[in-house]
Amino acid sequence: MVKALPRPSEYTFFRDDMLDQYANHMIWFPESLLVRITDFLHTPYGGFGSMCCLAPSHHIVMENVLYGRENDTYKDKWETYDLKPISYV
Known about the structure:
Strand content: 15-25%
Number of domains: 1
Shape: globular
Mean pLDDT: 83
Radius of gyration: 16 Å
Largest sheet: 3 strands, antiparallel
Number of strands: 3
Order of helices and strands: EHEHE
């Protein structure tokens, strides 16, 4: 699954504050239930899409933890959470 990070506040937080902490946590706690982030992609040079705000320049590639939900007999018991605060813009 690919998640776009269109806002500078999002990708700078991920790159500067969260990535090292996340990696350390996953090393120390390999059985963690956090989603597995496999890659952080960015364009090193500005492109037409990002300059015109038509396409984000940063993306996170992560495991799709909902894979298989539709075929599960207990699919109604699966839960999803959005960790962004309500006031997040």
